[in-house]
Design a protein that fits this description.
alpha+beta; 4-stranded antiparallel sheet; two-stranded antiparallel sheet
């Protein structure tokens, strides 16, 4: 029932924090320090430490666990292989193949689009912007209303109704949850802890927040997970969340708003014509402004 946002971040701390560690293994101790040394040359094209650091960031997690003296040569040889392959492809003129040329241009366009959006969005999600949004939306204000609840999840409405009938006769909710519920929390008597309304799917949240402490749902509640019987154990106003607890949420919201503004601005400056799937012009509302910017 609870909604989750999962995010995975790859890091290469060893490479990024101390690039000089690689340089020390391949250069005399008396050599002058170089923040971005050349680590290989292929047909006159230089490969820099910064290229290796970029590769490290996108390397599989298993490779990132290797010590620097093992990871460094692997990544250097990977870059050498790529440069050698690129040279061989150019030698054969593969870049002139229409399909290949289009794919290369598409990739370049995507890279440019992403760089443009990132350049416009990054200032909008700075630490200062996040702090300002926190001060405006959270600081000094009470948190959301929350409910503390237990629930029993079963597969059919009839099963849920039978459980309600047992509760009406005085049965213990937690024991019924342990016996009948197919939810992973059944072993804890169906305990869900405290949650706010937006943390649960709508049907479940509506039913839970309609209850008073000590009440349970008198009719089964259906969600995409099955049929629920819900017991409300308490209600409260949550404390004001700390910045650290909501900064990721704020940053995501600011990013979404900034990206949408970039898109809206770009579309407003473009001449846009829309067509149906059969190629015929798409009809537009005469009272609505035309898509894109005005023609000159």
């Amino acid at each position: 029932m609870r909604r989750h946002t999962l995010r995975s971040i790859l890091t290469a701390a060893t490479l990024l924090a101390a690039p000089a560690a690689f340089a020390q293994s391949s250069a005399p101790a008396a050599a002058p320090a170089n923040a971005n040394p050349v680590v290989a040359i292929v047909n006159g094209t230089k490969i820099y430490m910064s290229d290796i650091q970029a590769d490290a960031q996108s390397a599989p997690a298993q490779l990132q666990q290797l010590p620097p003296d093992q990871l460094f040569p692997l990544l250097v040889n990977q870059e050498v292989d790529r440069k050698a392959l690129l040279a061989a492809a150019h030698k054969e003129g593969l870049q002139n193949n229409p399909d290949v040329a289009k794919a290369m241009q598409d990739a370049a366009n995507i890279r440019l689009e992403n760089a443009f959006v990132q350049e416009k969005v990054a200032p909008q999600v700075s630490d200062a912007a996040v702090k300002a949004a926190y001060d405006q939306q959270y600081a000094g204000k009470p948190g959301p209303e929350q409910v503390e609840a237990r629930h029993i999840l079963v597969q059919t409405q009839a099963q849920a109704q039978d459980i309600i009938n047992q509760l009406n006769k005085g049965a213990d909710f937690a024991k019924l949850a342990e016996k009948y519920s197919i939810d992973p929390g059944a072993k804890n008597g169906g305990e869900l802890g405290w949650f706010s309304q937006d943390e649960m799917v709508p049907a479940f949240a509506t039913a839970a927040f309609a209850l008073k402490p000590g009440q349970y749902t008198k009719t089964p509640v259906q969600t995409q997970f099955g049929w629920h019987v819900i017991l409300c154990e308490g209600k409260r106003t949550a404390p004001t969340p700390a910045l650290a607890d909501v900064q990721d949420q704020i940053k995501q919201k600011l990013a979404n708003q900034a990206v949408q503004k970039v898109l809206d601005d770009a579309r407003s400056q473009a001449q846009i014509q829309l067509f149906n799937a059969d190629g015929t012009p798409m009809k537009t509302d005469a009272s609505a402004p035309a898509a894109g910017g005005s023609s000159n």
